């Protein structure tokens, strides 16, 4: 590795998952590939460049066979040709054909299996739980926070649990305040409704009393009228027909 390449990879390995590849594998013999792989692995170790999945022990399970092919020697091609009755992506030369998906020619199939099958979930988890949280926590510390509970390390769970316990008392207090406020509003509403009911009941009693007074006045007037008719009849002032007329009215 060149010094500049090594520094760039070292920085990138702290931010993203780095999977080492050797391109143009069709330009090297089998022995040259093995030698180049060995040299590159030593360079990565010397410069402390973290690579996936070898630098993440928790993600190695199930990928031991794939690790034997790291760094992957790969070939690229946009040409598809008929090789022995089957269609294959390849590179054609005067002296023969190099197949992209042939394990004897390229490690492409192992790279594809690592990316799309064996380590797909591990890649997502590592990106989120390691690189993203490390990046975010560094930004939080940069604006004045000495530490962040979002940094994924051995104390991550304990820090999260501590934060939950710290906030629990405040949340309980707010919940109790909301409950008391609701109870108070219900009580005020009940008092208001009770006062309205009492006013309506008093109004009803008042109206009934007024109706009773009117009924009493009507009955008294009717009695006075009847008494007057009887008095007039006795005095002979009114005839029987007039008496009937008054009664009819």
Explain how this protein is built.
The strands form 2 sheets. Strands 3-4-5 form a 3-stranded antiparallel sheet, with no helix packed on it. It has a two-stranded parallel sheet with strand order 1-2. The chain is mainly alpha-helical and 249 residues long. Strand 3 (80-83) and strand 4 form a beta hairpin. The chain is built from 7 helices and 5 strands. It has 2 domains: 3-122, Rossmann fold (3-Layer(aba) Sandwich), CATH 3.40.50.300; 157-244.
Secondary-structure topology with pairs:
Layout: H1 3-13, E1 21-22, H2 30-46, H3 64-67, E2 72-73, E3 80-83, E4 86-93, E5 96-99, H4 108-118, H5 120-142, H6 156-235, H7 240-248
Parallel strand pairs: 1-2
Antiparallel strand pairs: 3-4, 4-5
Helix pairs in contact: 4-5, 6-7
What are its keywords?
Rossmann fold, 2 domains, two-stranded parallel sheet, 7 helices, 5 strands, 62% helix, rod-shaped
Give a brief description:
The chain is mostly helical.
The secondary-structure class comes to mainly alpha
Average pLDDT rating: 81
- Count up the helices: 7
Helix content: 55-70%
Strand content: 5-15%
CATH architecture of the largest domain: 3-Layer(aba) Sandwich
Shape: rod-shaped
CATH class of the largest domain: Alpha Beta
The CATH superfamily of the largest domain turns out to be P-loop containing nucleotide triphosphate hydrolases
Q: What is the H/E order?
A: HEHHEEEEHHHH
- Count of β-strands: 5
What's the CATH topology name of the largest domain? Rossmann fold
Termini gap: 128 Å
Main sheet overview: 3 strands, antiparallel
Structural domains: how many: 2
Protein name: Septin-6
Keywords: Coiled coil
Domain Septin-type G: 1-142
GO molecular function: GTP binding
């Amino acid at each position: 590795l060149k010094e500049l390449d090594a520094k760039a990879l070292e920085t990138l390995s702290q931010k993203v998952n780095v999977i080492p590849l050797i391109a143009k594998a069709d330009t090297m013999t089998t022995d040259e590939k093995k030698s180049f792989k060995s040299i590159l692995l030593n360079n990565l170790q010397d410069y402390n460049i973290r690579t996936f999945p070898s630098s993440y022990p928790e993600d190695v399970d199930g990928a031991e066979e794939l690790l034997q092919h790291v760094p992957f020697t790969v070939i690229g091609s946009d040409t598809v040709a008929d090789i022995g009755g089957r269609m294959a992506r390849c590179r054609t030369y005067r002296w023969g054909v190099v197949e992209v998906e042939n394990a004897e020619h390229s490690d492409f199939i192992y790279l594809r299996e690592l990316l799309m099958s064996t380590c797909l979930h591990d890649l997502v988890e590592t990106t989120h739980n390691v690189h993203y949280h490390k990046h975010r926590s560094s930004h939080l510390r940069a604006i004045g926070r000495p530490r962040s509970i979002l940094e994924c390390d051995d104390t991550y769970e304990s820090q999260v649990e501590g934060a939950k316990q710290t906030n629990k008392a405040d949340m309980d207090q707010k919940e109790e305040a909301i409950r008391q406020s609701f109870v108070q509003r219900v009580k005020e509403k009940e008092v208001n409704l009770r006062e309205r009911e009492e006013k309506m009941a008093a109004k009803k009693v008042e109206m009934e009393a007024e109706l009773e007074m009117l009924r009493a006045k009507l009955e008294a007037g009717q009695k006075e009228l009847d008494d007057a008719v009887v008095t007039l009849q006795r005095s002979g002032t009114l005839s029987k027909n007039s008496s009937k007329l008054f009664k009819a009215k």
